[in-house]
Specification:
Blueprint (H helix, E strand, L loop, with lengths): L1 E5 L3 H12 L3 E5 L3 H8 L10 H10 L3 E4 L2 H7 L2 E4 L14 H13 L4 E5 L7 H12 L6 E5 L9 H6 L4 E4 L3 H11 L6 E4 L1 H32 L3 H9 L20 H14 L5 H13 L2 H9 L7 E5 L14 H11 L3 E5 L4 H5 L7 E2 L3 H5 L4 E4 L4 H4 L3 H7 L4 E4 L6 H6 L3 E3 L9 H4 L2 H5 L5 H7 L1
Helix pairs in contact: 1-3, 4-5, 5-6, 9-11, 9-12, 11-12
Length: 459
């Protein structure tokens, strides 16, 4: 089938590439001419496993194309997928400006009957409005139907999540729209759940917010574990055997980030407020996540006399491994706090450094290897569980750091191994590992080279 995809971000580009991989003729539309040229040369604008190789393969085989000419793309398409962003506004609502722009372009371009499919995450009722909007601005005498087909990909595994999805949700108001979508997804050989457009829109929000709630619940339990002497990893392991709970999304840490969970929880809260309903559980998830992100900093602030003049190693900048996306990442909450306290930050991330520099171009020293960050560091914060970080041995911290003091927001290390290596180690929902060799005279260790008068000034 001839498919046009509006938008070449995580949603649009991944969908377009995967449609081409399954045999459809796809053209991806973007307003950025330089971005289109880069994609035509085989370069992906986003870091995503397997995406670039599939782009190159399907472009070479003639099934995948890129353009800035939306008019010709939409005129030729039998189905047009909208995969543009719906960023969060100040009040928590979703900004539908990009959706409206694309809908207007479609209305002014199409010359034959076609199906418009909204893949972007949008509030309940948006598909109805998009269909009416297109009808209002249609130039030619054609029939345009609108359907909902939300995505459920996770950054870092987006291609796999699309090609091997647990289910395909299609929201339609006609048998014809359902037939077209089933035809598009037939080569995927995946379960298809057909519902109304509003139900499909709600399924997306309900799914994401449930996962966010599950993460916040485990983080809340982790904080309680610390107070009563339980180990959150043992607790999670025991819970995971219950088929009603499952093993996924039970890892406690320093909060969720990215482009979906933070935005979608706030958007659903906003929707509930608009219809006069108090969505207490989702509100609680948001509140827990906000406080969880600075949990390590608060622990370190109590442990240390000052951050002033200390070399602080930061390992991991992105919100999760497998992506260069740092939107809503815990690093964004903690680094400003550390800088404000006078810390000298050396940061390592195997993929996200270039993007992160756009936010902090000069305030941080970026290094190419984790060992460079750890060399002579007074304290280390782990924000992302990259494999390049997980493979650092406990002995490495003990040997390289001036003071082997580690705050781990992803519970990477075994407590006994860190203790044996002589590392003072604080994680989430587990007991602290105190190194008696270091705890005896903390003031001397962490204020070395700082006079008493200077210390009083920075407190």
């Amino acid at each position: 089938m001839k498919i046009a995809v509006a938008g070449t971000g995580y949603v649009g580009l991944v969908a377009g590439v995967c449609f081409a991989e399954k045999g459809h003729n796809v053209i991806c539309v973007d307003i950025d001419e330089n971005k289109v040229k880069r994609m035509e040369s085989g370069l992906s604008p986003i870091y995503e496993q397997d995406l670039e190789s599939l782009m190159q393969k399907n472009y070479a085989e003639g099934r995948l194309h890129y353009t800035t000419d939306y008019e010709s793309a939409y005129q030729a398409a039998e189905a047009i997928f909208i995969g543009v962003g719906t960023p969060e506004q100040q009040d928590g609502s979703a900004d539908l400006g990009y959706i409206a722009t694309v809908a207007r372009q479609i209305a002014e371009s199409v010359v034959h009957d076609c199906l418009v499919v909204v893949k972007s995450t949008v509030p309940v009722g948006t598909n109805d409005k998009v269909e009416q909007f297109i009808q209002d601005f249609l130039v030619n005498d054609v029939t345009v139907e609108v359907a909902s087909n939300p995505e459920f990909l996770a950054q870092g595994t987006a291609v796999r999540d699309t090609l091997q999805a647990a289910r395909i949700i299609i929201g339609t108001e006609s048998k014809n729209a359902e037939r077209i979508l089933r035809e598009i997804y037939e080569p995927f050989h995946l379960p298809i759940v057909s519902v109304s457009r509003k139900s499909a829109e709600m399924i997306k929000y309900a799914s994401n917010d449930f996962l966010a709630l599950k993460l916040s619940y485990m983080n809340d339990i982790a904080n309680l574990c610390e107070l009563v002497g339980a180990d959150i990893q043992d607790v999670a392991r025991g819970m995971s055997y219950d088929p009603r709970i499952g093993a996924k999304f039970l890892n406690a840490g320093i909060g969720y980030g990215g482009s979906c969970f933070p935005k979608d929880t706030k958007a659903l809260n906003y929707l509930a407020e608009q219809v006069g309903y108090d969505l207490k559980t989702v509100k609680a998830a948001v509140d827990v996540n906000m406080s969880q992100k600075v949990k390590l900093f608060e622990k370190a602030k109590k442990r240390l006399i000052t951050f002033h003049g200390l070399k602080v190693a930061v390992l991991g900048l992105t919100f999760k491994p497998g992506t260069d996306d740092f939107r809503e990442a815990p690093s964004l909450d903690n680094i400003p706090l550390l800088l404000e306290k006078g810390a000298d930050i050396y940061a390592y991330d195997p993929v996200g450094t270039d993007h992160f520099k756009t936010k902090f171009p000069h305030q941080i020293t970026y290094v190419g290897e984790p060992e460079e960050a750890l060399e002579s560091a007074n304290v280390c914060f782990i924000f992302t569980e990259w494999n390049e970080i997980k493979t650092i041995t406990p002995d490495t911290y003990a040997k390289l750091m001036r003071t082997a003091l580690v705050y781990d927001g992803r519970n990477i290390y075994d407590l006994n191994e860190m203790k044996e290596a002589g590392v003072e180690y604080y994680s989430i929902g587990r007991k602290a590992v105190d190194d008696p060799r270091q705890s005896a005279s903390a003031a001397c260790i962490f204020t070395k080279g700082v006079s008493r008068r200077e210390l009083q000034q920075v407190r």
